[in-house]
Design brief:
The protein has helices at about 5-10, 25-30, 40, 50-65, 70-105, 110-120, 135-145, 150-160, 160-165, 180, 195-200, 210-220, 260-270, 275-285, 295-305, 310-320, 335-345, 350-355, 360-370, 395-410, 420-425, 435-440, 445-455, 455-460; strands at about 225-230, 230-235, 245, 250-255. The protein is mainly alpha-helical.
C-alpha cells in the first residue's frame, strides 16, 4: 500500500480543504512539525501561566469576602467573582472557536491531530469556579509544545501540571506518616488517584505489570507533589511520606525527598516496555482502526523502545508503515473531528467563527457536540473520549450529526458551495456514486451539503 495524499489529510490531518493541497509525502507531513506554530499565533489561546492570573484574582476576591462578611466590600467582591466567572466562561467559548479555526486554516494539520490525541490521552480539567475553564490553557502549555518530543518529557509536563494535580486530587494527598499528617487537620490521608491513572492510563496500561502495592508506593512517592497559589507546581517535604518507596521493583526517594525522585519514577515508567506497547496500541487504534494491524503495533512499539520514546520517530514509523495507507477507512470521526473537518471542507471564513457570541457558539458547536456524545472540556472520567467506533455510531449521535450538517453550515456562510462541486472538495476520490448522486439530486444547497457531510464516506477516516 502506497502513500495517498488525500487519505493523508483525512486520516492523519484535519480533512480535505479547497484552500490547501494535500501533503506530497510522509516527509512533507513530518516537516510541518518543524515549522513555527504559526496557526497558534494566528488564533491564540491563553497559556496556563496567563490563565492563572484569573485564578489569582478569584482568590483575592474570595479573601475579601471572607474578611468583610456583610460589608459593601464583600458585596462588591461577590459581584466581581460573578463577573470573573462569566469572563472565563466566555473565554472558554472563544478558545473553542480558536481550536476550530486552527483546524480550518492550518497548513500543519498533523500537529492539530497529534495535539488533540495527546490532550485526550492526558485528559484533565478543572472542577469548580474559574478553574473549570482551564483545559485549553493546560493543553496550550503542557501538551502542544511536546507532541513531537520525547514521551517522558510530555508525561512529566502533563502529570505534574497544576490542572492535572487538581483534577486527580493530588493536592489532597498527604503521606500518612508525614509531618503534615502528624499535625492533624483535614489533609491527613493518602490519595491514590494520580498514581493509579499514571500507571493505568498514561504509561503501562490497564493490563500492565503492576499491582496495588505498586500503586500505593507510587502514591506515597508523589505525596510531596502539590500546588501553591495561584495554581503553580509545588513540592512540600512536610506532606511527603518518609522513607523509600519501591515501584516495579526499583527503589526511589529516601531521607531527603525531592521532586527529582518523582521525575525519576516518571521517566522509568515512560521507558518501560509495557508503556511502549500501550502507546503503540493506542496510536494505531486512534488513527487507523479499532483492530489495528499487529505488525503496525509491533513496529510502533519497537521504535518507541529503540528511541526511548521519541515521539517524532514513533509518528514517522506510523506514517511510513503500509498499514497506515489501507484504503479501507473504518474508524469513525470523533465529534470534534467531524465538525472541524466539515468546517475545513467548507472553508468557513475565520471571522464567521470568531464573531460568534457565546450563546451562538453554544448553539452551533457546544450543544451539538453534546448531542453527538462529546461534552466539550468536561470529561466523564480521566480516560477521555472512547476510541471504540460503536460509542459514536448510535441513533442519537447519527441524528445529531445529520442535524448539524444540514443546519449549521448555512448559518456560518453567506453562500454554500454547489453540492455537485462540494462532493469532490470534501471527499475527493472517496466520493461514492451514491453520495455523488444524492448531492446532485438535492433540492437545496443546504440539503446537498448536509447529505455529503453526514454521509458514511465523510464520517470515516
Amino acid at each position: 500500500m502506497r502513500f495517498d495524499p488525500q487519505l493523508a489529510d483525512i486520516r492523519f490531518g484535519c480533512g480535505l480543504s479547497p484552500q490547501m493541497a494535500p501533503p506530497r509525502s510522509v516527509q512533507a507531513m513530518l516537516e510541518t512539525l518543524d515549522t513555527p506554530d504559526a496557526i497558534a499565533i494566528d488564533f491564540p489561546i491563553e497559556t496556563f501561566e496567563t490563565f492563572s492570573q484569573r485564578i489569582a484574582e478569584r482568590i483575592e476576591l474570595t479573601n475579601i469576602r471572607r474578611k468583610n462578611r456583610g460589608s459593601p466590600e464583600a458585596l462588591a467582591a461577590k459581584k466581581g467573582t460573578r463577573v470573573l466567572n462569566k469572563e472565563a466562561r466566555i473565554a472558554q467559548a472563544i478558545w473553542m472557536g480558536q481550536h476550530l479555526n486552527r483546524w480550518v486554516a492550518t497548513k500543519a494539520p498533523l500537529r492539530e491531530r497529534l495535539t488533540m490525541f495527546w490532550a485526550d490521552h492526558f485528559t484533565a480539567t478543572g472542577k469548580a469556579g474559574v478553574l473549570r475553564r482551564g483545559a485549553s490553557p493546560y493543553v496550550e502549555s503542557a501538551i502542544r509544545p511536546n507532541i513531537d518530543g520525547v514521551f517522558e518529557d510530555l508525561l512529566i509536563a502533563a502529570v505534574l501540571h497544576p490542572l492535572m494535580i487538581h483534577y486527580l486530587d493530588q493536592d489532597r494527598s498527604v503521606g500518612p506518616k508525614s509531618a503534615q499528617a502528624l499535625r492533624g487537620g483535614k489533609l491527613s490521608g493518602l490519595n491514590e488517584n494520580l498514581a493509579r491513572e499514571v500507571m493505568e492510563l498514561h504509561t503501562l496500561g490497564v493490563s500492565g505489570p503492576y499491582n496495588q502495592t505498586d500503586v500505593t508506593e507510587l502514591a506515597e512517592l508523589l505525596t510531596g507533589v502539590t500546588t501553591a497559589r495561584p495554581m503553580r507546581l509545588n513540592f512540600s517535604k512536610n506532606r511527603t511520606e518518609p522513607g523509600t518507596e519501591t515501584v516495579l521493583g526499583k527503589t526511589y526517594g529516601g531521607d531527603n525527598p525531592h521532586m527529582r525522585d518523582v521525575h525519576a519514577v516518571l521517566r522509568d515508567l515512560a521507558r518501560h516496555p509495557s508503556t511502549a506497547r500501550h502507546i503503540a496500541e493506542k496510536l494505531a487504534t486512534h488513527f487507523i482502526s479499532d483492530t489495528p494491524d499487529p505488525a503496525l503495533v509491533s513496529a510502533l512499539e519497537a521504535t518507541f523502545l529503540k528511541t526511548n520514546g521519541d515521539l517524532r520517530q514513533v509518528t514517522e514509523t506510523m506514517l511510513s508503515h503500509p498499514a497506515a495507507w489501507n484504503p479501507e477507512r473504518v474508524n469513525v470521526k470523533q465529534p470534534f473531528n467531524f465538525i472541524g473537518s466539515a468546517l475545513r471542507a467548507l472553508a468557513v471564513p475565520p471571522q464567521a467563527i470568531k464573531s460568534l457570541k457565546e450563546a451562538a457558539s453554544r448553539r452551533n458547536f457546544s450543544i451539538p457536540l453534546v448531542h453527538m456524545g462529546h461534552v466539550w472540556e468536561k470529561p466523564s472520567g480521566p480516560d477521555g473520549l472512547p476510541e471504540e467506533d460503536d460509542a459514536w455510531i448510535i441513533p442519537q449521535g447519527i441524528a445529531a450529526r445529520l442535524q448539524w450538517a444540514i443546519t449549521v453550515p448555512s448559518l456560518l456562510m453567506e453562500e454554500l458551495p454547489d453540492p455537485r462541486d462540494f462532493v469532490q472538495t470534501a471527499l475527493g476520490d472517496f466520493a461514492s456514486p451514491a453520495v455523488t448522486f444524492a448531492a446532485s439530486a438535492a433540492e437545496t444547497r443546504s440539503d446537498g451539503v448536509g447529505l455529503i457531510l453526514a454521509s458514511p464516506a465523510f464520517q470515516r477516516t
